[in-house]
Specification:
Low-confidence stretches: none
Largest sheet: none
Mean pLDDT: 81
Shape: flat
Helix content: over 70%
Order of helices and strands: HHHHHHHHHHHHHHHHHHHHHH
Number of helices: 22
Radius of gyration: 32 Å
Strand content: under 5%
Number of strands: 0
């Protein structure tokens, strides 16, 4: 159960009486909306019937009555359709949630009431204790904004989650159709094709495909064809290309000749590839502008503001405002907006299923070591109130994360990279095998020739293992690949596993047919790789620029800002100390109690840490998707590079400007 459902249901249990009353009212309001539209339609119909007997079609009165009647009828049908369809409930169901619409709305309203009361209480405390107009205004602004943002998030979360799932599924649609096409090439059974696709397609699309079969088994549908068409129609409401491809697959099973059936299957594959490529590139282009906005607001704007702080007359009493801006608001908005962009990015490929197997004691040991290292660096940064040594605080926050992510990714990184490269090389290798099989060569001979052709590639390692097993054992190729100790038994190469199963089935036919099928399968895989490559190119420039700026430019810029702030602050203290007590210059900016360089450095160190961490999270998820090994490894490197650059820059600039301090 989702965390959202747990909280929502718990809140509704606490307010059980109100929840039941709200459910009744919710249903009554829905019915009242339909009844009101129906009553207006009835009255308009009566007026229209009366006008019909009194005026001709050319008369103005007749036209007005007719127009009013049509409008009332349209509104009534729309209200009735919305009531029957119940979009809110359907969205919740699609989002894999168990809460009901009235429970979600009640949850949002209860949150709004209690959060408003809490923030009003906070406003009173701030007003009574701070005696600051700015602090009070900021607190009041938070009261007017945060509760309503929270309410909007709670009520709209099912829609956001459903939309995110649809976008994630967009990348798996070509995969699902390709698997069904592969299956139908070999066996014109729609049921077998759906079962094959559901077993090998990623979630949550796999579950929806299984529901087609469940609907037939549970007698919700009379035939698999009926359930399949219903599935295509429901999904077609938001993705027409997927619907047309599924309809074409359905038509293929009705073709009478083998040639017509293959042509129809090729058409279905072409439809989904063209539609998906257009949709995915469109999504990538639509994400480019939000990514640039995120880069500007989340990285560039804070750096500009930070560089201006040394010459800005901000007193010590405004420290809380700098902390709120640089360490809370900007990183918070940066993370939320980056998360939104990530949720709107389709997933195209499944990363290798690899994990570093650590026992509970080993994992706890890594965590303890990381914490100890962090505490040591924190002590070094806090032992003296010096803005230079405070750079160790960045190490205290970054190194524990770097150690943990490195330990949980590096041991399998080489295998991970090999599998990724193997999946990239596989379509070309398969195409060459298919070409040689179609020419009449046995599969083993074709594989041996491809090994020689693709010498030095990652796929060579896999094929050599297969050929060695064929040479040294008496097992069949299927047993070698998928037996008890089969080479491809693990799930680390899911695309290769699935494709090789279909390839083995195709080899049961004649060489020309089998070779043609293998070539078609390789072409489908190439198309999928091409779509993924195009989308990465579209997003790569913006995300790479953000990563480089946050990782390299930000630590150096903040180090320069820190040294300039310390130099300017030191000069101001020297000038103010030699001015006469009653001098006209001894007031204002010179005599203001500024934020100490040490305090300012801590604020900036936290900002650098959060900026690099969030940027790493965003960059890895956009470029590598849901690949925990690659993502952790990249973030571990970033968490190591940033403190090195910051510390080296800070010490170098401090020594360079030491004569001014």
């Amino acid at each position: 159960m989702l965390w959202y459902d747990k909280i929502c249901l718990k809140v509704n249990m606490l307010f059980r009486t109100q929840s039941e009353a709200f459910r009744v009212k919710w249903e009554e309001d829905r019915k009242k909306k339909v009844e009101a539209a129906k009553e207006k339609y009835r009255k308009a119909e009566e007026e229209y019937e009366a006008i019909m007997s009194m005026y001709k079609k050319e008369d103005v009165q007749y036209k007005k009555a007719y127009s009013k009647y049509i409008q009332a009828f349209t509104k009534y049908m729309k209200a009735q359709t919305e009531y029957d369809r119940n979009d809110f409930a359907q969205t919740i169901k699609f989002a894999r949630m168990v809460s009901e619409p009235h429970q979600i709305v009640l949850f949002g309203q209860i949150f709004l009431i209690f959060s408003l009361l809490l923030f009003v209480f906070i406003d009173l405390i701030v007003f009574l204790l701070s005696h600051s107009l700015i602090a009070t205004l900021v607190a009041v602004l938070g009261t007017l904004v945060i509760p309503f943002i929270g309410y909007a998030f709670i009520v709209n979360y099912p829609f956001m989650r459903a939309n995110s799932l649809r976008i994630k599924m967009l990348g798996f649609m070509p995969q699902a159709v390709s698997y069904m096409v592969m299956s139908l090439y070999l066996n014109p059974s729609l049921e077998h094709a759906v079962a094959f696709a559901s077993e090998n397609t990623e979630e949550p699309l796999a579950t929806d495909l299984k529901k087609i079969l469940w609907g037939v088994y549970l007698r919700e549908h009379d035939t698999i064809e009926e359930a399949f068409v219903q599935f295509a129609y429901e999904w077609g409401q938001w993705n027409d290309g997927f619907k047309r491809a599924l309809y074409t697959l359905r038509v293929s099973s009705m073709r009478t000749t083998e040639q017509e059936r293959k042509e129809t299957l090729d058409k279905a594959a072409q439809i989904i590839m063209e539609s998906s490529k257009r949709d995915l590139i469109g999504y990538a282009e639509s994400l480019y502008v939000p990514t640039m906005i995120l880069f500007s607001i989340g990285v560039m704007l804070p750096l500009i503001l930070a560089s201006l702080l040394p010459i800005t007359p901000i007193g010590k009493d405004m420290t809380w405002l700098i902390v709120l801006l640089f360490d809370i608001l900007i990183p918070g908005m940066f993370f939320v907006y980056s998360r939104k962009i990530i949720n709107e990015k389709p997933t195209l490929t499944t990363p290798p299923d690899l994990t570093v197997h650590l026992t509970k004691n080993e994992k706890n040991l890594v965590i303890v070591i990381s914490i100890i290292v962090g505490v040591i660096f924190a002590y070094l940064g806090l032992r003296s109130f010096d803005y230079v040594t405070s750079s160790f605080l960045l190490w205290a926050m970054s190194i524990p994360i770097s150690i943990y992510f490195f330990v949980t990714s590096y041991p399998v990184k080489a295998e991970h990279d090999m599998l990724v490269q193997m999946n990239d090389d596989f379509p070309d290798a398969l195409f060459n095998i298919g070409s040689r099989v179609a020419e009449g060569e046995p599969f083993e001979v074709a594989m041996r020739r491809v090994v020689d052709l693709m010498h030095g590639s990652a796929i060579e390692i896999l094929f050599r293992r297969i050929l060695y097993s064929l040479k040294t054992t008496r097992d069949s190729l299927e047993e070698i690949l998928f037996g008890k100790d089969g080479i491809l038994k693990d799930k680390s190469t899911r695309v290769i596993n699935t494709t090789m199963r279909v390839t083995l089935d195709s080899l049961k036919k004649d060489n020309v047919t089998a070779g043609g099928m293998i070539i078609n399968i390789a072409s489908h895989l190439r198309e999928l790789k091409g779509i993924e490559r195009d989308m990465r190119v579209k997003l790569g420039s913006a995300t790479s620029m953000m990563q480089l700026t946050a990782l390299y430019f930000a630590p150096i810029t903040i180090a320069v800002t820190m040294v300039l702030y310390a130099v300017i602050l030191g000069k101001l203290e020297q000038v103010s100390s030699i001015l006469p007590e009653n001098s006209m210059f001894s007031i204002g900016f010179l005599k203001m109690q500024h934020i100490s360089a040490y305090t300012f450095s801590i604020i900036m160190v936290v900002y650098v840490f959060l900026t690099v961490l969030i940027t790493g999270y965003f960059y890895t998820n956009v470029m590598f998707g849901d690949d925990p090994i690659q993502n952790r490894f990249e973030i571990a490197k970033m968490m190591l590079i940033a403190p090195i650059l910051y510390t080296v820059s800070l010490y170098f600039l401090n020594n360079f400007f030491s004569g001014f301090l």
